[in-house]
Amino acid sequence: MASLDSARQDGFFSGDTWGWWQARRLRYNLVLGAGGWIAYAAAVGLNYAFGHPVWRDWRGGLGMTIFLGTVFAVVMGFANVCYLLGPAVEGWIKPVDVERYRKNAYAMGLWGSLAVPAVFPLVQLAMLIAHS
Question: Is there a contact between 87 and 18 (Cβ–Cβ < 8 Å)?
Answer without folding.
Answer: yes
